[in-house]
Amino acid sequence: MSEEVFISQYVTANKTGYEFLSEFYESTMQTDSEKIYVDFTWCKEFDANLSAVMGAFLDKLAYDGHNIFLRSPKSPGVRRALSRNKFFKAFDLETKYEDRENYIEYRRFGVSDTSAFKEYIGTELIQKKRFPKCSEKAKSKIIESIYEIFANAVSHGGCNNVYCCGEVHTRDGRTMLDLTFVNLGRSIVENVNKFLMGKGAAPMSSCETLEWAFVEGNTTKSIPGGLGLAILKEFVEMNDGTIQMISGDAMLEIKGKVPTDTVLSKWFPGTIVTVEFNCDDEKEYMLTDEVPDKDNLF
Q1: How far is CA 45 from the centre of its chain?
Q2: Phi and psi at residue 17, to the nearest 5°
Q3: Whole-model pTM?
Q4: Among 273, 11, 282, which Cα is nearest to 157's?
């Protein structure tokens, strides 16, 4: 018995795109079919960094015993994007497109792949020609901050893998570099509210739990720490970039100092974090102990 699942025409990093992805997960997880054909034929736009989400879903289906087959899109743009970031290659779909500087390779990291993950962030993100200029100390701080996302997924979410990929693209006349991290562990909504209720505090709304996670000093760990998101938020704010977080039925987008909350109609079974860096930023970033009299410090 087999089942065919069609990818939407437009899968982009917005409310509609995330709701489609959550619906895709919900529907495919309920199937008893041995073979699942994931059909990209009519997809006209698929943000390359969201390959991390789709890859996490397909791995879960394969782990549950389904045989997964991908059908290539007719759109040259979608085919090119999902080939150059090696997403299609990861699922045995042959392509002829070569790698490009504009794509961050699709990768899966196990819970013990600490060194490999840090190396990936260094080579695939920080060393990109278009990444904002930073001192070596600032680069190390950013890597450690991003690593905190990986560590949180493992320790808080109880997941087996973390998925990553990204791309450089033009949006609203600006060149932006997107990097997405995905895990299918426990949602931030569940973790934060379990932690708060354990302390005798009232539970928060889904969107409030995501905002709570970005506040410096807030952590559900028994040992204080977890400053990764707060530091990353500070850097992206100065860089005029964007951070998106999707977990459960909540979506938080931070542009500058303005957070925007959105309630999703579908529950996402884990957490997505997308960091969008502004490549047109001409500032050079340093830590405060390097040059204490400049503005572009964090």
Answers
A1: 18
A2: -65, -45
A3: 0.91
A4: 273
Q: What is the 3-state secondary structure (H, E, C) of the chain?
A: CEEEEECCCEECCCHHHHHHHHHHHHHHHCCCCCEEEEECCCCCEECHHHHHHHHHHHHHHHHCCCEEEEECCCCHHHHHHHHHCCHHHHCCCCCCCCCCCCEEEEEEEECCCHHHHHHHHHHHHHCCCCCCEECHHHHHHHHHHHHHHHHHHHHCCCCCEEEEEEEEEEECCEEEEEEEEEECCCCHHHHHHHHHHHCCCCCCCHHHHHHHHCCCCCCCCCCCCCCHHHHHHHHHHHHCCEEEEEEEEEEEEEECCEEEEEEEEEEEEEEEEEEEEECCCCCEEECCCCCCCCCCEC
Size of the chain, expressed as the number of residues it contains = 298
CA angle 101, 105, 107 (to 5 degrees): 165
Measured CA distances, 81 to 95, 99, 161, 209 (Å): 11, 10, 23, 33
Query: Regarding beta strands 242-255 and 103-110, do their DSSP bridges make them parallel or antiparallel, or are they unpaired?
Result: unpaired
Task: Name the residue with higher pLDDT: 219 or 229.
Answer: 229
Strands 161-171 and 103-110: antiparallel
The backbone torsions φ and ψ at residue 111, rounded to the nearest 5 degrees and listed phi first, read: -65, -25
Token pair 């695939």 in the structure block, residue: 124
> Which residues pair with residue 213 across a beta bridge?
none
Give yes or no for residue 55 having a pLDDT over 70.
Answer: yes
How far is the first Cα of the chain from the last one, in angstroms, to the nearest whole number? 56
| Range of lowest pLDDT (58-62, 163-167, 187-191, 264-268) | 187-191
Residue showing tokens 């060149």: 175
**Can you say whether residue 154 is alpha, beta or left, with left for phi > 0 and alpha for psi between -120 and 50 degrees?**
alpha
Q: How many alpha carbons lie under 13 Å from residue 94 in its C-beta half-sphere?
A: 0
Other beta carbons within 10 angstroms of residue 139's beta carbon come to 18
